[in-house]
Amino acid sequence: MTEQEITALIRAAFAARGFAYAPYSDFKVGAALRAMNGRVYGGCNIENAALGPTNCAERTALFKAVSEGVREFDAIAIVGSLDGRKNELVTAPCGICRQALYEFCGPTLTVILAKAEDDYLVTTLGALLPYGFGPSNLDPAQSAPQA
Ligand code: THU
User: Fold this and answer.
1) Does residue 93 sit in helix, strand or coil?
2) What is the Cα–Cα distance from 139 to 110, expressed in whole angstroms?
3) Atom number of ligand 1 nearest to Cα 78
4) What does pTM read for this prediction?
5) Catalytic site residues?
6) Which of 54, 98, 101, 128 maximizes ligand 1 atoms within 8 Å of its Cβ, making it the mutation to test the pocket?
């Protein structure tokens, strides 16, 4: 990805973060997931008084896209921090989001963890979720009959 493309995706993640609903943790997260068709799907975290139904920003973006028939992606940018504060740490996707992304993106997805438009690191889903369990694990072509 070019630096310009990365900056654009981080900007989209910050825009999505603006819609975060996080009255319980005050930790606002934004994600921007880029589809192979060039479209970018933004997502924010959506908390709940019962806590359990809370949805992370990454899954919000992913489920928006998949629910519109889009299943191929090449990059995601993620930003997160307490409301009104600038983070010293990058916000990396939680375990559930890594698994949810793996289903559609596999290990090659580029993952941009950003603190600011010009302060980020670039990694991959494969690095964040080594030996991920995905659709190919359930593919009979990947196994042999038991002797
Ligand atoms: N959260 C995300 O949306 N994405 C992450 O990658 C980490 C955590 C949300 C969930 C919850 O609303 C808040 O951040 C604090 O955990």
Assistant:
1) coil
2) 25
3) 6
4) 0.96
5) 58
6) 54
